[in-house]
Model the fold of this input.
Amino acid sequence: MPTIRDVARRARVAPITVSRVINNSGYIRESTRRRVEQAIEELEYVPNALASSLRFNKTNMIALVVTDITNPFWTTITRGVEDACSECGMNVILCNTDERPDKEENYINVLLQKQTDGFLLAPVGGRSDIVRKIQKRGVPIVVIDRQIPSAHVDVVRSDSEDGAYRLTRYLLELGHRRIAILSVSSHISTGRQRVDGYRRAFVEQGAAVDPALILHGEYKGQSGYQMTVDLMQHVRPLPTAIFAGNNFIAVGVLNALHDLGFRVPDDVSVVAFDDLPYATEPFVTVAAQSPYELGLTAANLLIDIIAKREPAGTRDIVLPVELITRRSCRALLPEPILPDDT
Amino acid sequence: MPTIRDVARRARVAPITVSRVINNSGYIRESTRRRVEQAIEELEYVPNALASSLRFNKTNMIALVVTDITNPFWTTITRGVEDACSECGMNVILCNTDERPDKEENYINVLLQKQTDGFLLAPVGGRSDIVRKIQKRGVPIVVIDRQIPSAHVDVVRSDSEDGAYRLTRYLLELGHRRIAILSVSSHISTGRQRVDGYRRAFVEQGAAVDPALILHGEYKGQSGYQMTVDLMQHVRPLPTAIFAGNNFIAVGVLNALHDLGFRVPDDVSVVAFDDLPYATEPFVTVAAQSPYELGLTAANLLIDIIAKREPAGTRDIVLPVELITRRSCRALLPEPILPDDT
DNA sequence: CTGAAAGCGCTTACAG
DNA sequence: CTGAAAGCGCTTACAG
Done:
């Protein structure tokens, strides 16, 4: 394959001149530029970005590390990130950790070696050492979707607590008291905060929370299904409503309820965090995040930090969620809401 | 940041010795290795993969270029590719062309510069120049999902023609004759071949195809919705069945039918290519591909070609599709099927 | 088993 | 406006 020397020889200039043409830097006589461009064309020269990056100390690549690439929430974030990056000629390396700490650690190591200019990280757990490792090397990082309490880092996320609070209050106002929440391990900040919001709504209403109705699984359809089966088979009295902690859990909940013979909303009401992907008919009441904006915001912040237009810091940028009420909930009224009916 | 020289100095060896420890190449005295490893640890040394790749002429990265990252079909392929690659220490750069030729071309150029070891490409259109550009530079490539008639290249794909044939025959056997197919431009081989299979079933049955029932849109929900509206409002006599060309089109079809007041399967039967993502209740009869295997197969072939265990060639590896019958189709019998009822 | 020299393909900093 | 020299951080090929 031809190198910059071959182009230089053919255009009868020095390699550095070819470099200047390619990078549009410094002054070049118009006729020289044309000669070089022609040589590039004739040789079908493709610059070696490895060599260029090694010298420039800049790869124009950022890493986007997500936890589940099959989830539309993350693919939509990815589009936001891509759009922000392609605006300014950056490329995105997309990595999927599958919620596994070992994969996360491995990717971070590889990406540090590959000298990506920045990291957009959705951390698997709540450990801060992985963030610190990146920061120690001076590589800009923005954490997305999930907080890490012990880390000093910029975060862009949705308001999980508020969304969960509003969904729960909505159910309480419809007269529900036995509301189950199917969430995830409290090591994941979104799972923890969604349970927090749920509790706050109960407390505000003066209603007691039944710990048996708070389940912890994973952000997967299979887990939502299993939690629902456990719930409906073993917990008594039965819940009258189920709060699914994310979109995939919601799919599992709906499938399980169907298989168990419960109708929604007649027998059980259902709400979910995240809008449901590719629903053939919008049906479930949800707290919808704005994943595209999440991706856009986080990427733009990272890009600004890389370009030193912004300092790295400990921002906590929280995007609002939207409550969308549909047909998946039944009112348990007209019985009046009692201040404390437990 | 410390370089290999710093490690070498600290371990009192030459840089090349450090290199040998890192790459596990050549003989090293055990005590030397330990000294080097300790220095690496103490300095928190991270090798610069840019420099290493420049020398090795190998980046251990392959590019996966897909057409729609929000489609579960592609994300599942991606998982197959990732699993195959992580087996042998390769990394995947995932790029999303959004079915746009300009984005495709741009990504290919950038990736060639970045010296990826190979390409897994789902071509946007049927043009072969993009493939030739990659081949000219001697970079291994495997085309995935879609054929390019004029290119001499290895392909891994599903049997679109057969799947479409079987779905259509299934509807014909139920007594349907006015079967609409909502596909995509024939520049995309899968779209073309699905219409081919549809035609073959009609021909075999001795039934005539009504060109007004063959629609061409895009592989998007919005497009499926629009085509369905056009179809049901303007084409007479109304179709009794709709064949959705992919999963996203199917979602659009179902949404549109619902909004227009048609019930499935009572008023209209529906079948689709690709299983439906995250259905809250499996309901539609489909020809299901095996995207995970598609990704795995294509990646393994590419890896073998890169490692020169296999020659590059013009293989056409076709994976079978599975017909899954569910509740979305109604029999128009008992009227007997006439050999030619048009 | 270990190392000095040269070079991968670019670009910075200086000179003219 | 253009170029010769040096170097980015590694590793190949040779020498010992």
User: Anything to note?
Assistant: Chain A touches chain B through 46 residues (CB under 8 Å). The mean pLDDT of chain A is 93. Chain A has three domains: 1-35, 58-158+290-320, 160-288. Residues 3-5, 15-16, 19-20, 23, 25, 47-56 of chain A lie near DNA strand C (CB under 10 Å from a C1').
